[in-house]
Amino acid sequence: MSWRRWCKPGHPAQLVLGFSIWSIWFIAMYAGLSVVCQFTAPAPQDGAANWLNYMLWGLTSAVITLLLLMAWRGWRYCRSVPHGSRTLRFVGYVSTVLYVMAALATLLGGLPVLVLAPCI
Question: How far apart are CA 5 and CA 83, in angstroms?
Fold first, then answer.
């Protein structure tokens, strides 16, 4: 099956997968926030401590964990590839850095749910 090749850490698809996951998270997070605020907004007196922010932070934490696991997987792959395979090592190292950057972008994009009240 061809999709199994795409899942390998040395495949060039790994170079775009991290920020693709980040963009899906970004759209889901802010679209979900908008829809929930339109239909069932949490009570404004709760501030940042409400069920919506807890759900959004849970989603953010899950995506950060996924991205860091993918980075760790890529790093382990780079360490195991023979030195003769320069292209595979390059893809592995660059995708590892991109996964870490996507995890950092997810963290920075998700921090406001810890301190800001939604739907105001």
Answer: 21
